[in-house]
Design goal:
alpha+beta, 19 helices, homodimer, AcylCoA_DH/ox_N_sf (chains A, B), 598 residues, eight-stranded mixed beta sheet, 12 strands
Chain lengths: 598, 598
């Protein structure tokens, strides 16, 4: 069996910890049961093993190429996998039954997608992008747009992308120069260049639905003039099929260190390569209202950021499972103090330092998965909230947690991949084993969908202070509840609770102190350190949650959970101390550094 | 100009800090002067820029291939570079004048080699391996062996390798199965398989001199039966050229994540592919005495380990220089609080978080270079010591520092490459920029020449306790001298000194505590954490040394040094606190973890 995630761990997290089964008592999910959730996971595992995992390395070694005619050449296994995925109906997971969806809880759909990401991150990205695109249109599009664009995506026939970045505006969306002009018939004509567009072109689907950020006349400067425009590769035909070729064309494929199976593209929009309706300019359709494009996109971006966290976790997780298997099977060396140099060599998992590296991986990847699933469950809680106030509160909590859900796995599950290589030794550095690819693939995640640095600015500069710190307060209340429960449980749980409580209280207090004189340059001087401290404490909290969910349960699986929690509280949590000290000192070293001094 | 190292920084470290010029007052180096040292560095920079740097990425994208006839196909630029290097005479750097060497101080030769490693790590490896091989033979070989094997290597005509690992014995040399049998004529016949042999085959040189670890009959079990045998690819001819093809053949090339320009090979020895003297079995020549092979190799391995540290540093350094250049040139975003969204974008080096990432890189790579040069200068001090006692003391100090010189840059200069990618954003993840290659190349370094874990065992299990901890005491005395000088200097230096002193004293005290009950399983349970704590403190000490060497000097360069020292003491040194706490707690989490619980 090929590796992906651990089903045992998923079952624990979903059913024994998060009690996802209880969601079926809510009206939205009333048609579901644990059996239907399990069936989704079983189906996913089957597709992952048959169609995704087998070509993971093949796709890496044979990356997509742009043919002279401007089309994309790719190994056929990717289309076969995506066809199988489309036929499975899994892509309809969270969508409403009214549009043909399975109306699954987000947390179950995310678990399913994470499985595929672990099996083959690059191929799964086409699915993830299409889901995100369709979800945005299902939320903000007109009925007609849903009929025209969302339905073919849910049928697996059309794929979707998000077109934000431009060559001169990667992280700075205020500086995009793509423009859209309204036409007399209500459509738009779009011109510009987009960069870093994943899945931006390929021959995998009948059509590609691009969601393009473009400036439209009349808005205030910067991001307030941005609108969101649907720009399909082929204009929709009256019969629901694809019509005329639109004026959006591939100008280049980016050649990446990893994640090579996913095309990453530079696109020219409206440069006259194609002439829909007899003239240059890409035909586009406005989503929602003009100048509100970024707010629609941000809604999607929160989900995309949690999705990046899952991607990072999935890559770390599958590397961890492979490292455990390798360490159990590879004989090398002898126990400390062995007297006979000719006694048989032992599996390297017998060496304490190898177990340390495996425990660290376990703590990172299971922590990352817990974090992603927790946030996904919050999405379900928000969707099914009793009233608008409750939904708003959960939304605030999600806002605060999203930078962590994105950045923490991107950092630490990448570290897990690093350790998986180290466990493999020289073999891990060769392309005969998978772990080096997982590491290269995972290195993308601290960069895209908002770099690590941008997540830090978002968290400390916006999320923890908005509405007077209400979101931070909600998170603190949840952590306090876990701490109280752990203290009541006593023993190691109480010890962990004390450690977490002290550090979290310091960080919260510090948040106010950093903003005391309201100068962003002072408050944000070490925002990445704040982000990393916050992240480690959130994951410590979720390890404490897991530890409590384990309780007194017996068996190897539960012993493993207890040891991973212990590892996190003894080896990882204490590292936060100096980070918080640094923040408390209002250190200005980086701020004072003069560029001329490098 | 292509990037490599900073000549300004090298000049500072060599002349302003280490006072390498004073070496010319010692007899061995009396023929030299700062002018000859500078000439070596100038020549290196010229060769690096003309012959090494230009094909660095080309070699990565076109890795060596094994032809059907068993020879190696490689881009021609590698041979051109190595020919230029051979002609330059640089390879003779540290060798005695009596064998045609330049008799340079090690510290200067290392600086020269590091420059080439930064320009092109993979091509430079052929030179480094040949130097190490020749140095070992120059020390332990007979006059005849020196004449036959060392001279052609110093002429750049023959290359050398080190053949230690085998498929079933990577880190565990006791388990090698290659055997050598003495023949009536005094030569040996060797049979076995070797794995991970860098430079193990190629067509770059007329001949390849392999130094092979093999077991010879009669020794005690394990490592005590290992001898060191010269196995040339071609037997030496009477005229000094190459004679009959020896029975050592390439069976496969390893395909690696990085460092692709250096062939890494599996070799069959004595399998009858060639029949020197009419029969199967590779002809070999014993170095020194039987069963002492590992001790000769360990002498070389210490140098090789310092060499790996330089390699890691060089890769981190060149990535840092490229990141600074990119950050100064890439416009993106605006200063915090900028009111006008249409004001011009600023270079990203204006963003504090980008400067944090650059400062971290600067602290790592300049710290790593200081560490490597310090150790190299110790080698010179040892060679030119006044008496045997002084030489022995310096040798002990080097023994203690070697695991750090190898492991610390392998960890932190790899981290520097990670940050160089992050500074480049999406572009850094593409193969259009160099930094992703440096990162892939550098990932090798925590693995080869003794993994990170093995360095930890070597440091805590052997180096700091041998001779009753004498080596550790010598290091402590040097650190104490720096601390005293810094306290006398006052100001920031005194503050840094206090921080270092407290942490170092704790670590030294702890060393005894860990070994209190003499149980290696207890003492070594967290040896990697010990290694990392030790390394960070050693580099903190060397940053304090640099800070003192800067003194009150004025100018951008010195301001940069001061800020990097400040960064190290404020951001990096405090991280050691929780690591030492963990060690002090005698944490047994990894030791107690049961393999069945993963």
């Amino acid at each position: 069996m090929s590796h992906a995630l651990s089903r045992r761990d998923l079952d624990f997290l979903l059913y024994e910890w998060l009690d996802v089964e209880a969601l079926t008592r809510r009206e939205r999910y009333a048609e579901h049961s644990r059996e239907t959730f399990d069936a989704v996971l079983d189906l996913t595992a089957d597709i992952g093993e048959k169609h995704f995992a087998p070509h993971n390395r093949v796709a890496d070694a044979n990356e997509p190429r742009m043919r002279p005619d401007g089309t994309v050449e790719m190994i056929p296994e990717v289309k076969a996998a995506m066809d199988a995925y489309g036929e499975s109906g899994l892509i309809t997971g969270t969508f409403d039954e009214s549009v043909g969806g399975m109306q699954l809880p987000t947390v179950v759909a995310r678990a399913s997608m994470a499985w595929l990401q672990a099996a083959n991150a690059s191929t799964a990205s086409y699915a993830l992008l299409t889901t995100a695109n369709a979800a945005l249109l299902a939320e903000y599009g007109t009925d007609d747009q849903i009929e025209t664009f969302v339905k073919p995506m849910l049928e697996g026939r059309w794929f979707g992308t998000m077109c934000l970045s431009e060559p001169q505006a990667g992280s700075s969306l205020a500086d995009i120069t793509t423009r859209a002009e309204k036409q007399d018939d209500g459509t738009y004509r779009v011109t510009g260049s987009k960069m870093w567009i994943s899945g931006g072109d390929h021959e995998l689907s009948e059509n590609i639905v691009h969601l393009v950020l473009a400036k439209t006349p009349g808005g205030r400067p910067g991001v307030h003039s941005i609108s969101l425009i649907i720009v399909p590769k082929y204009l929709p035909a009256a019969d629901g099929g694809r019509g005329e070729r639109n004026d959006i064309t591939l100008t280049g494929l980016n050649h990446k260190m990893g994640n090579r199976g996913t095309t990453n593209t530079a696109l020219a929009i409206g440069d006259g390569t194609h002439r829909p309706g007899g003239r240059a300019g890409a035909v586009g359709y406005l989503v929602g209202e003009e100048h509100r494009g970024l707010s629609y996109m941000f809604h999607m971006m929160n989900e995309a950021r949690i999705g990046v966290g899952f991607l990072a976790t999935a890559l770390g997780y599958v590397g961890y499972l492979k490292a455990v298997e390798y360490a159990a099977g590879r004989a090398q060396g002898r126990p400390l103090g062995a007297k006979d140099p000719e006694s048989p060599q032992v599996p390297i998992i017998e060496h304490t330092d190898v177990r340390r590296m495996l425990l660290a991986q376990k703590a990172y990847v299971e922590g990352g998965l817990a974090l992603g699933l927790y946030c996904s469950k919050l999405v379900d809680d928000q969707i099914t909230a009793a009233d608008a106030d409750e939904a708003a509160e959960i939304g605030l909590l999600l806002d605060v947690l999203t930078p962590i859900a994105k950045s923490w796995p991107s950092q630490w599950c990448l570290k897990a991949n690093d350790l998986a290589i180290q466990v493999h030794g020289g073999y891990g550095y060769t392309r005969d084993y998978d772990v080096e690819q997982h590491y290269r693939d995972n290195r993308l995640n601290p960069i895209h969908e908002g770099t690590h640095g941008i997540q830090g600015m978002d968290l400390l500069g916006r999320k923890v202070i908005m509405q007077g710190g209400k979101g931070l307060g909600l998170l603190t209340a949840r952590i306090a509840a876990t701490v109280a429960a752990a203290r009541a449980a006593g023993g190691a749980a109480a010890d962990y609770a004390d450690r977490l409580d002290v550090a979290w209280t310091r960080l919260v207090d510090l948040t106010g102190a950093l903003w005391a004189d309201r100068d962003p340059a002072v408050a944000l001087a070490n925002s990445s350190v704040y982000l990393e401290s916050f992240g480690h404490l959130v994951v410590a909290w979720l390890w404490l949650e897991q530890f409590l969910a384990v309780g007194d349960a017996q068996g190897d699986f539960y012993d493993g959970k207890r040891m991973a929690a212990r590892y996190f509280f003894r080896h990882e949590l204490p590292q936060v101390g100096p980070w918080i000290d640094l923040l408390a000192s209002m250190d200005s070293t980086s701020a004072e550094m003069n560029p001329a001094w490098f």
